[in-house]
Design brief:
The protein is of the alpha/beta class. 36% of the residues lie in helices and 15% in strands. The mean pLDDT is 97. Bound molecules: 2-keto-D-gluconic acid. 2-keto-D-gluconic acid binds next to loops.
Length: 315
């Protein structure tokens, strides 16, 4: 039997691509120069899209393939997929939740410690010989025991908070509604109030039209000149211009960011700042997690074409 034809939107690891090819006839869309002609030639034969959280699939792409049955996303975030367009055509969408939660939380905590204790700057101080020349490194501020706000207490936010209990932090959170928790972390509905109540603000909520620029000038002012903001969700959750202005003016203390507007081409203003820690969108970037994500992308595709229930449908 001929293999089902799928459209691959961006590169995966060699391992994952090999697995996909074993089961499917894969078209590497990102390598196609003449996309218009490709769509003319293959519009009716493509049955699935395999994409990534950061690349998604827009309305035009989704509607170019009338026999599309499923969009399998390599990533927990599916904000780059036009869910409405998929719904209109009864196309299933799956993502890769759970398998990456703890890695993203690990990185978020690592970013807090690294920025708070100036780990990168301190290493440069040693390697550049400044330690021997100048003596003591300027002191940093303490991290443990500080007030932490978690904006978005979903799976990832919860794992961040759980880790922070080991640092004796004073945790409060915001979410769509209060959670029924065993912990006694206060719920603060208003983002400005949450920021006022925090020395360190983690942004861990999934992105949507409603959360666009939820971190704005007012929230940053409320966090204040000693405050730190950490984003491991999506760039759109922060008004990046307001953040850059605040970091340059010192009205917010520092920022640790794993996601950027237009990434990987970030605003050059970030590169001029000393009060930032910049990461290349790799919250889920461990071998173990990326393999689990690749397995889940494939398992969802196989389930669809075997007529079995999907493993992780987006609901
Ligand atoms: C990316 C992510 O998908 O899970 C998400 O939503 O953004 C990431 O895991 C991953 O970096 C591959 O692009």
């Amino acid at each position: 039997m001929a293999k089902v034809e799928i459209l691959q939107i961006g590169p995966y690891s060699e391992r994952d691509e090999k697995m996909l090819r074993e089961h499917f006839h894969v078209h590497r869309y990102f390598e196609v120069d003449d996309k218009e002609n490709f769509i003319k030639m293959h519009s009716s034969s493509i049955k699935a899209i395999a994409t990534r959280g950061d690349l998604g699939a827009d309305r035009e792409l989704i509607h170019s393939f009338p026999n599309l049955e499923i969009i399998s996303v390599y990533g927990v975030g599916f904000d780059a997929v036009d869910i409405e367009a998929a719904k209109e055509k009864n196309i299933h969408v799956t993502n890769t939740p759970d398998v990456l939660t703890k890695d993203v939380a690990d990185l978020a905590v690592a970013m807090m410690l690294a920025l708070g204790r100036n780990v990168a700057g301190a290493e440069t101080f040693v390697k550049s010989g400044e330690w021997a020349r100048k003596g003591m490194l300027p002191l940093t501020r303490r991290v443990h025991g500080k007030r932490v706000g978690i904006l978005g207490l979903g799976r990832i936010g919860y794992e961040i908070a759980r880790r922070l209990t080991g640092f004796d932090m004073d945790i409060s959170y915001s979410a769509r509604a209060p959670h029924n928790l065993k912990e006694d972390w206060p719920f603060i509905a208003n983002t400005i109030e949450l920021a006022k109540n925090s020395d360190i603000l983690f942004v861990s909520l999934s992105a949507s039209a409603e959360t666009k620029h939820i971190i704005n000038k007012d929230v940053l002012n409320a966090l204040g000149p000693d405050g730190m903001v950490i984003n491991v969700s999506r760039a759109a959750n922060i008004d990046e211009t307001a953040l850059l202005d605040a970091l340059e003016a010192g009205t917010v203390g520092s920022a640790a960011l794993d996601v950027f507007e237009g990434e990987p081409h970030l605003n050059p203003r970030f590169l001029e700042l000393d009060n930032v820690l910049l990461q290349p969108h790799h919250g889920s970037g461990t071998v173990e997690t990326r393999e689990a994500m690749g397995d889940l992308v494939l398992a969802n595709l196989i389930a669809q074409f075997d007529g079995k229930p999907l493993l992780s449908p987006v609901t």
